[in-house]
Amino acid sequence: MVPNGCRRSRKAEEDILDEIRKYKEDHTKEKIDYYDAFKGQEEKDDFLANVNRLEQAKIWDVIIEMVIRKDLPDEFEGRDEWVALGTDFRRLVEPLDIGNYYRHLKGDGIIPYMSVRPKRYKFTQRWYEHANVTGFELVSESNFVAEIEELMIEVETRKNKTREEVEEGIERIKHQVQKWRSELKDKCKDKDLFWGESILSKLQEKLAQGLQ
Questions:
Q1: Which of 44, 106, 117, 151 is the most exposed, fewest CB within 10 Å of its CB?
Q2: Does the keyword Coiled coil feature in the UniProt annotation (predicted)?
Q3: What is the largest CA-CA distance in the chain?
Q4: Cα–Cα dist 17/8, whole Å
């Protein structure tokens, strides 16, 4: 039995996810995708997407804390509907959290997002991996854009890596994205996934401008 509070949270979660999904789809039809639009925060819908992101975080942080405190049934984390909802949430919203993190340069660009990744994404990723009997991936289809952001910072400011090392990082990401796209092709809604085309293209342009 799932507590009524969680049922209400699930309905609220689904409604907000639909709004974020529409935000993503609307930007798919434009020159700027939802990741870049969200980071820019120039339009009203970007502001509303941020409000929805914060609402999502609030709901899931409460759910995860309930899981940690064992306030929910033992089978809760394995329930199909919650695994599916957690996966949709992670794939749609984590890129926005990453965009928000690097937009504000939290940690002054020194602490990578992956070092402070919220539990709401770690737990929902674990639920998905357990349900699908897959191995653990530190970098997943919902957070790899953070690795691209780190390479961008490397190119723009740190310059601790050689051009070859950055290029190797780019190729590794591109290969992994291709692998995910192939594996997930028939298992999920592609429109819920962000494949990082815009920021990856920007990184390659920056690199072409002259990391020595």
A1: 44
A2: yes
A3: 60
A4: 14
Q: How many Å separate Cα 180 from the centre of its chain? A: 14
Handedness of CA 70, 73, 76, 77 (dihedral sign): positive
Whether the CB-CB separation of 47 and 41 falls below 8 Å is answered with yes
Asked whether 101 and 93 are in contact (CB, 8 A), the reply is no
pLDDT per residue as tens digits for the range 124-152: 999 999 998 777 788 899 999 999 999 99
Domain boundaries defined on the chain: 4-208
Q: Which of 70, 75, 90, 69 has the alpha carbon at shortest distance from 20? A: 90
Question: Hey, what are 42's tokens?
Answer: 């120039």
Interatomic CA distance for residues 29 and 107, integer angstroms? 34
Q: What is the sign of the dihedral through the CA atoms of 168, 173, 178 and 179? A: positive
**Could you give the CA distance from residue 178 to residue 168 in angstroms, rounded to a whole number?**
15
Among 87, 91, 78, smallest CA distance to 24 is for: 91
For residues 37 and 27, is the Cβ–Cβ distance under 8 A?
A: yes
138-190 pLDDT tens trace: 889 999 999 999 999 988 887 788 889 999 999 999 999 999 988 887 666 66
pTM, full prediction: 0.90
The pair of structure tokens assigned to 136 is 């653990």
How do residues 33-81 score in pLDDT, each as one tens digit?
A: 999 999 999 999 999 999 999 999 999 999 999 999 999 888 888 899 9
